[in-house]
Write a structure and sequence with these properties.
Number of helices: 14
Order of helices and strands: EEHHHHHHHHHHHHHH
Distance between the termini: 32 Å
Strand content: under 5%
Structural class: mainly alpha
Helix content: 55-70%
Number of strands: 2
Oligomer: single chain
Largest sheet: 2 strands, antiparallel
Shape: globular
Length: about 300
Amino acid sequence: MFIGLVGCNPSMPDTSVDKMPEVISLLGVEYFSPTEYIPKLDSNLLVAQEKFNAAPTEENYIWLGRRTAYLTRYNEAIKIFTDGIAKFPYSYKLYRHRGHRYISQRKFDEAIADFEKAVDLMKDAPIEIEPDGLPNKLNQPLSSVQFNIWYHLALAHYLKGEFDHAEKAYLECLKVSNNDDLITATVDWLYMTYRRNEKPEEAKKLLEKITDSMVIIENDSYFKRLAMYKGRLPVDSVLAVNASNTDIALSLATQGYGVGNWYLYQKDTTNAIQVFERVVAGKHFSAFGFIAAEAELARFR
């Protein structure tokens, strides 16, 4: 799943011990890894560690880093990926995963450098499905390594406000978006990029790719944002997250950022700021909608 942050729900900072923050937000807020035991995530990490100890292969470096990151231990995960890159310098997959966690840490320049390196290294490589660390409801991986590299490269540029670069990368991402979930995710962010680039006609045309016949497995929140942009869902309904949702806070971060953006398109900065502030008051500080709302607020301030 790639809608935003994948991982556990972070706890409040533990001030009883001397810990390094995992993230310093664009607004100066420090976020820490949780201190409670999370059985499934911790047991998965233990398995990954045992496999790594037995054979420190490229794949086992990747999974050790991913499982560590799911516990919001980004500093440690980045070190694991860095060590892996030193051993496997041509691994575009290791660059892809380290770049993702640089985004989590708001280190966008470092993320862009990693994804650009990954793009260079993956040339001519066959499309490869990327296994999910936190499977969707069908336990069916949907994205490829190539998709994730272009998607996250574009996102890092978008978060920096480099919309020309983001547009180019999202167009490349669209070429490898080969199912309804991937098309929905890419179109959503490309639509927002077009709007920021003052290309309303291109944005409107892009929405034609989103149809009622699409089967969405993961990216329901993105699909709702797009329905709102098409005028098929009222703004209030997108901000009101369904109580039956498996992760209300994550959906609020994702859908809320879209609503805030909608207000920006209407030149209503007051309501936009209020929605962005509501998003960053949530707990999913590594959700892409959360980081994007944070970036908007940082620019306003």
